[in-house]
Amino acid sequence: MRYKKKVIVSDAFTTPTARAERLHRVRNLANLTRKEMCENSSLNICTYKGWEVGGYGGLPVDGAERVIKRIAEEGVVCTAEWLLYEIGQGPYIIPDFKKLNKDSQRINTAEISEEKEKILQEILLFRKNFPEAIDYQIKDDGVTPIYNPNDFVAGVKYFGDTIRTIVNQYCIVQTLDGKTLVRLLKEGTSPNKFLLLCTNPQTLVTNPALYDVELASAAPILRCYKQIKPEK
């Protein structure tokens, strides 16, 4: 099963404008002009320009797949779920890509599985039902085996003084310096500061306990979507 060509707008993350902003961001990461993006690729420059301004209904699924293949040639890794829905890990650059891959023409990018598609649809529904929803794909083993790397988790954000009402729970936390983590939330030693704990005794996380951290938000985990066939 594949995605339908058009993306159904269900929240602020899926609007044509939001997709256009993410598209512009990945092109900048790849250090490409619009013309360079479309040269020697399956992308039509007029259509592409429309996607970057939110025209034609916004970036479609098949367009996202073509963009991902093009920027992969420049060492930029991005997933369709992030580009279309801002779900999961954002785009990143492979260091020294051109040197490491001088004999390679392309990075092979796997298509989204039917299983992951179902997970993404559930996350979109969760976002629609809860205005302050947050979702995140776990990247480390800090809270294994409760929640594992590549699990998708979701919750509803708490802010300010109300964060203290959700201590002693596993939460998706956003720190003031822009980090997003899944940790056990504990009270700190001073007001409005918190202790963020890894509960896996064998974690590879460098700092398994972060003391007196100020938070932008914290969300107790209400949903966890585990893949039957985990990503490699």
Any key phrases for this structure?
Umud Fragment, subunit A; 434 Repressor (Amino-terminal Domain); alpha+beta; single chain; two-stranded antiparallel sheet; 2 domains; 232 residues
Q: Describe it for me?
A:
With 232 residues, this protein is α+β, with helices and mostly antiparallel strands. The protein has two domains: 16-112, 434 Repressor (Amino-terminal Domain), CATH 1.10.260; 122-225, Umud Fragment, subunit A, CATH 2.10.109. It has seven helices and nine strands, in the order H-H-H-H-E-H-E-H-H-E-E-E-E-E-E-E. It has helices spanning 16-29, 34-38, 45-52, 61-72, 80-85, 97-100, 114-129; strands at residues 76-77, 92-93, 133-137, 152-156, 170-175, 180-187, 194-197, 209-213, 215-225. It has a seven-stranded antiparallel β-sheet with strand order 3-4-9-5-6-7-8, with helices on one face. Strands 1-2 form a two-stranded antiparallel ribbon. A hairpin with a 6-residue loop joins strand 6 (180-187) and strand 7. The chain is elongated and about 55 Å long. It starts with 15 loop residues before the first helix and ends in a 7-residue tail after the last strand.
